[in-house]
Design goal:
By secondary structure, this protein is an alpha+beta fold. 15% of the residues lie in helices and 33% in strands. It is built from one helix and six strands, in the order ββββαββ. A hairpin with a 4-residue loop joins β5 and β6. The longest helix has 18 residues. It is elongated and about 80 Å long. The chain binds zinc ion.
């Protein structure tokens, strides 16, 4: 069984590439690319976006054309938050100093800020 999808890019059939040329004689056309499902080299995941789009250009053309409808599927009405701890640590470092004649390393205490995730029971 070979399932396939037509590329969903709205402009796919306007791109001038040999791979899209179909027909014979004076009846030639540029045709939307056909994508064999589950057989493309990118991945074998069934719901991978590249089962529906032949490439990034067609994917983004589709998103641009249908952006509002896509966003309406799962609108974000509030900000999400991830609990974290912000840890500030002091550590000994050195900076390079040049006075015109000589150079030397001068020690100083630097500060490093690290964001750490917090374990919670929500998994
Ligand atoms: Zn396409």
């Amino acid at each position: 069984m070979s399932n396939y999808n037509w590329c969903h890019g709205p402009n796919c059939h306007t791109q001038e590439t040999q791979s899209r040329v179909r027909g014979s004689g004076d009846n030639k056309v540029l045709r939307t690319r056909r994508i064999k499902e589950d057989s493309n080299y990118r991945t074998h995941e069934r719901y991978n976006m590249f089962n529906y789009f032949c490439g990034n250009n067609c994917l983004f053309d589709y998103i641009r054309l249908h952006l509002q409808e896509i966003v309406n599927i799962a609108p974000r009405r509030e900000a999400l938050e991830t609990p974290i701890k912000v840890v500030k640590e002091k550590y000994e470092s050195q900076r390079y100093e040049w006075n015109g004649d000589n150079s030397r390393y001068v020690p100083y205490t630097a500060t490093r800020t690290t964001i750490k995730s917090v374990d919670n029971d929500n998994g």
